[in-house]
Fold these 2 entries.
Entry 1:
Amino acid sequence: MNITFYLAATIAVLATVMVITRANGVHALLYLVVSLLAIALVFYSLGAPFAAALEVIVYAGAIMVLFVFVVMMLNLGEIAAVREAQWMAPRIWIGPSILSLILTAQLAYMLVSNEIGNTGRAVVDARAVGLALYGPYLLCVELASMLLLAALVGAYRLAETGRSGVIKGGH
Amino acid sequence: MTTVPFGQLLILPVLLFALGVLGVLARRNLVFILMSIEIMLNAAGLVFIIAGARWGQADGQIMFLLVLTLAAAEVSIGLALIIRIRARLPSLDSDAANLLQG
Amino acid sequence: MMHALWLVPAFPLLGAAILMLSAGRLAPRAIALIAVLPCAASAIVAITIAIGFITAPPPGHAFSQILWQWVAIGGFDPAIGLYLDPLSLVMMLVVTVVGTLILLYATEFMAGDEGYNRFFAYMNLFVAAMLVLLLANDLLFLYVGWEGVGLCSYLLIGFWYQDAANGLAARKAFIVTRVGDTGLMIGLFVLFTHLGTLDIQPLMHRAVLAWPHGSNIASLAAALLLLGAIGKSAQLPLQTWLPDAMAGPTPVSALIHAATMVTAGVYLIARMHVLYALAPHVQMAVAAIGAATLFAAAVAALNQHDIKRILAYSTISQIGYMFLALGVGAESAAIFHFMAHAFFKALLFLAAGAITMRLEHHEHDIFRMGGLAKQLPVAFWSFLIGSASLAALPLVTAGFYSKEMILSETWAHGGAVPILWVAGVVTAFVTALYIFRAVFIVFFGEAKTPVVGHYGIRIMLPLTVLSVLAIVGGFVETPNGLGGVRLFSHFLSSVFGHVPLAASATETPLLVVASLVSLAGVALAWLLYLRPAPRFVAWAQTQAVVAWRNFFLSGWGFDWFYDRLIVQPFLYLVRINHSDVIDDVFTGIADGCRGLHGLLKQTQTGRIRWYAAWLAAGSIVTIAVAVIR
């Protein structure tokens, strides 16, 4: 199982690197799907099969499909890809890379220096999650539902187009 | 069931999160910035899962569920905004959308 | 009845409030009613209180009424309270009665003026402020009245504000008295820091206990209060505002000169007489200032053309007599003269107003009047009675008794001060000369300006009442040789502890001298101005004499002197500091802020990635802090 984890982790990191370096939007999205699937594998290896399933269905499925729709709707063609490549000149990466490296080093240092322990590791199946979710965490379900409702209304209002096809509001 | 030590397990979300930050800072296209934010959110969800596994409790997965919901909501709003910006500005260059300049 | 004391200042204040708030929406008849009634009510209350006070004096011959506490901060707890003793009673009576008469007169005098409502609002406020000043229990409350009087005088002198000259005169009055007010305020600070209270009666007790006779600090406090008194009472060297204050309507002048404002300084010194007794040098200065002022102002009055300016200088001169009396420790004589002066000066001003309002173009120059005795008999007889009282014609006038009292007290004060007495006697002569000069020029000779209009009852009545008062007002106090009535000084003795003069060998000669000089003055005026000898006319036109006359006409050149001494240097400083050094400091601060703003603005690029980078950097720093700990 350890090899599964290391493999999945490597794939996830490499795929993510590809995501942030692609000039073509659709390519980047496909790499992101790969990364998410790899992370789902990691979930599974950590004894969270329900979360792994959700990761595949919701993240890699629904959310990524939304992205694909939008990218295609915006029609980011060849010209956009060329411009993206121009925007990704090497010197652009210097500052953000330094910041990210420092952040990584800091977080890694904190995690390694703390004794986390190595016990636990029981499979928490969908039944356990469901019982907890509709038991003590009922309020979280309500919060999530409201969040989604707000997102639904907000997205509808923001992307609404008038009869003439012109987007309304937002003066 | 993996037996990798938790210290090493946690390196993965750290790396993913840092890559997400890198993407947000380095990319100019708003779609890519949104993708990078997704990466960061996912890294945060991964930490919850790892923590849930550490204590063998369901709470971690429930928090992951909440993060998932948040990501869905955020993406829908973010993409709607991108559509709106696309209608007003010639490109999705985040540097061009600088109307808040002081 | 004594507890109704608070009504006395409250009535005019209420009248002023009603008139101000109604803002001219009332009919003129209603305004006139609201203008006079509160003051008349005050006068009635004051008279009732006075009767009660005299028939059944309160314990200690003083009554105090605390209305409410003003503030209480540490040891500083001034009260809003009223204090009634014979001194404030006399002043209150005079102010309310004379004020009522003047207001009654003004309702007719000001008829048709577009500021009718405003005028009476100010007048009522003026009377209220003066009553507060007189009745205040506490120096701080007194200061409220003091400043209120100053404010109202400013408003009323500049009442006809469309003419810029009137505004200038008002400003001058305000600024010049302000010089004195500053001295008074510092004096109050000195008193409070050393004695710890401003309540007048405890203050006097503590002063006597704390300060030895002639101590420096007592002298300092007394001198600072004197500065305030000089400013308000228009004494040398702060007298320049009063002649210009004639810019206001005539009833205002009457009120300022007779009842309110200028007598405030006299009252202040009389009220604080214990303090002045502790500072003999300052008291001597009071007498010296009074003597110098009374003479200088009388000489200036002799050379004026404007009938109101003559009266203005005459007021300065008569207040000088009061200061002289205060300076020689004869406070009751000063207050007696104040009372007599209030009657005859109000009468003179109202009569002068009655003359000018009937002349075409409201003529003020006495040399363009003439022969008015037959045409304006009421004004003539009023003015004549007032003049006789001012000139102290023997036996029949109030002014004679009060002035005689001052002169004999001055003589009795000691052999070292005959100079003061001489000044008083010489000025008595000049006084008779200048006022009868005005009488003869205005009322006799040939008519030069036509007369129009007629008088109503509201003008006749105050003139009549004041005429009677200007004659009989003096019979409450007569010298030993003439019956020795001592009602007035007995009444005031509980305040001042001053015993009237005993009969002495010098008294009769002094009385004769005082009578003779005033008669001589009238006689000389008769000779010089009614039937002028050609030689005198020629002499008066010689170059040197004309130069002197112009010098006196300008009031001894004080305005010129102050212009050179203060105004011009100040204007020079204003010119060289035109760009304002201090201003540069503040514009510098503003520029600095703008520069910093420009720098900070650079960070607001509007670029999302830039903000995100700062977010990341901030997170790194925060985590670094957490890690290093």
Note: The first helix of chain A runs from residue 2 to 21.
Entry 2:
Amino acid sequence: MHKYEKIWLSFGTVSLAVFLLILLVSALHGGHSPAASGIETIHPEHVLDDERFANPGLYESDDPDYDYDLYFVASAFRYDPAEVEIPVGSRVKVSVATTDVIHGFQITGTNVNFMVEPSLVSNYTYTFNHPGEYLVLCNEYCGIGHTDMTSIVKVVE
Amino acid sequence: MANTVREKIGVVNAKDSKLVLAHMIFVIIALALGGTAGLIQVLERSGYFELPSWISYYQVLTLHGVVLALVLTTFFIMGFQFAAISRVCGGLTNTERRIGWIGFFMYATATVVAAIMILLNEATVLYTFYAPLQAHVIYYIALAVLVVGTWVSATAQLMSYFRWKRQHKGQKSPLLSYMVAINNVMWYICTIGVATSVLFMLIPWSVGWVETVNVSLSRTLFWYFGHALVYFWLLPAYMVWYAVLPKVIGTLGFSDNLARMSFMLFLFFSIPVGIHHQLTEPGIDAFWKSVQIVLTFMVVIPSLMTAFSMFAVFETYGRQQGAKGLVDWFKKLPWTDSRFVLPFIGMLFFIPGGIGGIINASGQMNQMVHNTIWIVGHFHITVGTPVVLTYFGAMMFLLPHITGRQLTPALNKMGLFFAYTWALGMTIMSAAMHFIGLTGAPRRSNFSEYGGHPIAETWQTYQIVQAVGGTFLFIGIMIGIVLFIRLMTSEKTGIVEEFPVATFMDENAPVTRFVENWKFLVLVTVFLVLVAYTVPIYQMLTEYTVGAKGFKLW
């Protein structure tokens, strides 16, 4: 092997190792593991019969790890609730289920961005530190009214 | 000497040329159709144009994706690989060629049928056809036939490669034929996923034999294929970079062994990585997502090997031309040869493209950009520029070569204009996409003001910029179409354009152990796939999930 090739490949391998190390530390120490991971099933035709999704919205939580549970129902072509208020600084576990096809749940301006698939509940816990009106949209094509699917998250003092 | 044999048979014979030409005609039609669809999309999304009521944005988007990502690429790849195999292995036998034509007619028919279903608005499910959006069964059947057709053609190419090896025992196989074999073996293994999903899940479900479909499983099988598809596009471009470009600029390739080694690594790390497209979805444990992230990053090694090798070739050539300083060899490169400039511009785009890829594969940053238009910007500067500009660079010599013509100075100049217009349009369009993607603008979405929300207002200026970039790109595509037609129809001069194939600095060194041991290659590939996929798929099969009924929401 050529000397420069060796130097170049060593540089590449080392930077690869550094990248992976950063990801690992961030995942384990920082708690940034991929959103919506894990398996929590739900019957896709009976989402609205589930007590969490019958009246979706913000509920105080008993769990010490976060302050509120926030439930959303995604369906073509709307989110329920269409608007929700969250006290600033609160840690919220967002759970979303779909009654029909795949949707992409995204609260713009935050890290809340995950897929919602039939038969499964998607969760992600996030702290809303900055007041404002955040646009919730669907970022996975779900049909002709795809861009009509919106909601507003108001983070208030 | 293997070399002298290869020099003597250095043309694609007339019968094989016809097969290659048939493929290339589809490439040109796909470029025209897909390019037009792309223009319509950027104009619609600028907010200044409305589509007529008889066609929807998503129909056009489905057409754009299928025609460019599946059709243009597949026809170029199969056509180019037939040309390459024929060029270096002494022509196809009648049987091999006949099998090639059968494969061609399968995917040609399937393409036409799928396009009709899209235009009839029966398959507005985009090229990823995620269930439970349910297309017409004929669309799924067409996609299945398209894939099976590629298996048939790939088999003809592999037969040719193994025949050459049998006839030349103890000799090193021609590099291009080895690369074709790697790409085809990778293709067989990865398409098993999508074929399983289409044949055993989506077709029975869309006919009504079964009522529901397991959504997670069908998506996972799709992406088991879907990321390897990216490398299936990329490897033929690398074939041109490694095995053609050194000859084009007039020097030796850096290392035949390095090229083979990098292709081996691409085979290993192309498939067990598909879940990095599913990092933000439910139904898969964080641990298995992480395993596939690590496997995804392994591609850094063969990518850096390729970059090193290419620039080693360029510098060597520049120094042969008398360059002395640290970087003045760069100026000596053949900047007026379109066969070099088209792929070279592609390589430049691959630098931000590769960095973007590292960002996307990093689990945490992925969540920022997942399904935003950043991703669209990303794959337009990876597949949409490095890959296709290299294809077009190859077509500059391939089209005249197979039709018995020459690349004239006028057409060469036109090729340069084509490259620059494409680069300009793509820079503008993809930059705008990257910027607004970071603030959350979604991909796969028609123009919307999102109820007048301020963040959506900030996207609108950039969406106009996208349309400007897309318009330049479209002009480039028009130049390209005229150029390709002229390359096949200009006057014959009696001189046939060369199909350049490089020799290497280590031409006479033996192949590194194991690199061409197919049992070893397939075993390692399958082993890595099993490591990455056994548990996630087992969980999807055994976990109590109710399947989803089909929906037609367009």
Note: Confidence is low (pLDDT under 50) at residues 1-8 of chain B.
